[in-house]
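Late entry, written up from scratch paper. The run itself happened at the end of the previous shift, but nothing got recorded in the book at the time, so transcribing now.
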Amino acid sequence: RFSANFVSLGFHAGFGISHTLPRVIGQQKAALMLLTGRRVKAADALAWGLIDELVPADELRAAATALAAEIAAAAPLGVEATRATLRGALAEAVRRQTEHERAEQDRLMATADFREGIRAVAERRPGNFIRA
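Output as recorded:
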């Protein structure tokens, strides 16, 4: 299962996820995850492109090793160049987005809704948010 449950805590997403997640699964599905905190099951994560492969837990290491070997068998310069092209200015974009996310987090940490979100999650109950 995957989730981005920041809003359940009365909080803003972090770690640059508001930039990277839409790039991976699309704006609509990223908004669904980020605005609801909904858990995404593995089969849906595969269909959405959030994961590349779905394997049983006891086959995970072998599958990861096989994928790494497949990449390693390709021409190293081609892999490096393609990886750099795919990432483009990703690091700088994530840095900027992380700064924005942190500013929002700082603002929200001072709210009653944030305190309620933390209590609600700790008590395993829905939050009672008041926009304060």
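The chain has a mean pLDDT of 95.
(Scratch paper discarded after transcription.)
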